[in-house]
Structures are given as structure tokens and as C-alpha cells.
Amino acid sequence: MPQYLRRYTDLPALLYMLKEKKITLLDPASWDDSNDSHYLSRYKEKKALSSVLAICFSQADETYHHWRVFSGSSSGVCIRFKREPLLRALRKRAGVMLGEVNYMTLAQARKQAPSIAGLPFIKRAAFVDEQEFRAIFESGDQTMRSLDITLPLSCIERISLSPWLHKNLADATKEAIKAIDGCAGLKVYRSTLIGNEEWKTIGGSAC
């Protein structure tokens, strides 16, 4: 089981999380993958729920795909959480379900339709490289568009800033993050995924 869960998001969301010491689940209706949001909408409908909110993490190591798709601008960030402390924090909120996403081909879905309970954790097989893990909140009587859950900052192992963030801006961004109350000791780095000097040096020594 992976030791860490990664959350790709943007700098404003990160700053809110750090200042408020909360992690936010949102309505999946705005998700880019309409197949995905449709399944959660059907789950809400079939269970006659007032709210279904979600937040997604990746169990995979850092990849170009994750950065480009989920945080593809200079304001993108990747928060690497310690898995078990994060899950303990999420479980403290009643109504939260946790689970890995199951990936299915269309042929598999035709052969055996998913159960209602499984709908929030199913995605098409083309997305399997994401290795997604989800927290789902449901409520039968409260209509909500978002939910904040208290998050101890000790859950955060490190923060990576966007590989597209200009190097001249990275230090100031790190300083702004560390200036937030309780954040002075956080590990904050600019990702070198698309510009690693050691990697370049190794290539330069080819013979």
C-alpha cells in the first residue's frame, strides 16, 4: 500500500488549506470527466441524498500527466500527504467514506453493472494510471456545496510547487507559505520534473 497520497491543486487552494487548517470536499458536478460526475450524480439520486461531495488523491508517484492534467499552470501545487494520518483526520467526520477507485472497461460494465454502493468509486479503465483514491461525503438532509474538515498540518509530508513556476518566483512563494502560522517547518520545493540539473548532467556525461 502506498505510503503517501498526493493532491494536485492550485496555490489559492493550498493557501486556504494551510491558513484554515482544513481540507475541502467539493460538489463533483464541475468535474472535467462527465462520465465520472454522472456516476456520482446517479449515486446521489438513487440514494435520495441531499449532498454528495468529494476530494480526490493519487496513489501514484509524481508524473508529467498528473501535473499537466490537474495542475497545469505555474500556480499548480502537489501536496504529498502521509497516508494514515490523513485518513485518520478524514474519518473523524461522520458521513465520509474512503476508498480506492476501481477501473472498468466498457465491456466489463456491460457484462456486470456496478452496484449503487460502488458508483462513487468507479471510473473508466483509460484513467487507470491516475491510481485514484477518494474521500466521499454524503448527507441525507443537508444541502451543501462544500465541506471543510479539520486537517492537522502534521499530515503533510511535503509540498511541491509547479515545475512551470519561474525559478525567480519560487523562493518568494516558499517564503509566503512558510510565513503562515504553523507552516515554518514545512518542506516546500519547486518540482524539477521537467528541468532537473542532475539528470541533464548525467546526459552530458554520455560516452
Task: Explain this structure.
There is one protein chain. 31% of the residues lie in helices and 29% in strands. The protein has 207 residues and is of the alpha+beta class. It has one domain (4-204). It comes from Undibacterium terreum.
- The percentage of residues in β strands lies in 25-35%
Structural class: alpha+beta
The H/E string reads: EHEHEHEHEEHEEEEHEH
Question: Total strand count, please?
Answer: 11
The rounded distance between the terminal residues' Cα atoms is 39 Å
Shape verdict: globular
Count of separate structural domains: 1
Low-pLDDT segments, ≥5 res: none
Overall pLDDT: 94
Organism: Undibacterium terreum
Protein name: DUF2971 domain-containing protein
List keywords for this structure.
3-stranded antiparallel sheet, 207 residues, 4-stranded mixed sheet, 11 strands, alpha+beta, 29% strand
Task: Put the structure in a nutshell.
It contains seven helices and eleven strands.
Topology:
Blueprint: E1 4-10, H1 11-20, E2 22-26, H2 34-46, E3 51-58, H3 64-70, E4 76-82, H4 83-91, E5 96-100, E6 102-104, H5 106-111, E7 122-124, E8 132-139, E9 146-150, E10 156-161, H6 167-178, E11 188-190, H7 197-204
Parallel strand pairs: 6-7, 10-11
Antiparallel strand pairs: 1-4, 2-9, 3-8, 4-10, 5-8
